[in-house]
Amino acid sequence: MSEIDISYRGILKVAIPISLGSFVQFLVVITDNFFLSKVHMNAMNGAGNSALLYITLLMFAIGLSSAVQILVARRHGEGKFVEAGETLANGFWIMLLSGFVLSGILFWANHSLLPLITSSPEVLDNMNRFLDIRALGLILYPIVLMIIAFYSGIARTLVMFFATLITAGVNIFLDWVLIFGNLGAPQLGLEGAAWATVSAEVSALIFLIFYLLLDKG
Predict the structure, then answer these.
(1) Most C-beta atoms within 10 A of its C-beta, which of 46, 62, 78, 139?
(2) Residue 121 neighbours by CB distance under 10 Å
(3) Cβ(199)–Cβ(193) under 8 Å?
(4) Rounded distance, CA 194 to CA 201, Å?
């Protein structure tokens, strides 16, 4: 069983990527709002308010991923590496199922709950269009959280740092491309911000899956 560095440097090496990774969804929201503020204030308000509902539902998946992290850390600490891997495999199916359930709840809330609490028809329309697309990303993003939880459980958190960079970088680039129609892309405005975020989350998932499959550590 490999020993874990518990020096100050070792603790910071594990903690800093986790801290940065915890802010990734807020970085996405800030980026979307920055670009959409140059389109229309109602577009920015629609995306910003939508993010509150999205992140609220995402908290459930974060809670599940924390459970995976605890179980993996326990098995890894006991030297039961096969069982740690089994926890990862079982967590995959649980998180995939939760993704479909949360996406369904988000779609329902988008069209049944938001009309009851939103007074501005234009802002409501923006929220509906934004969340219909973001709901697609909620299907897969819990798997991102699960893989990150696995690596956090075995104290190898640098992968979270790279996943955060990919998510933020792809989101910024595609916001610029899809919101304003740069590089020959269609000018999608609000929907462009939503597709940029979903694409960024999928990019992080692809990176993490390849990292997991190729990891020899």
Answers:
(1) 46
(2) 9
(3) no
(4) 11
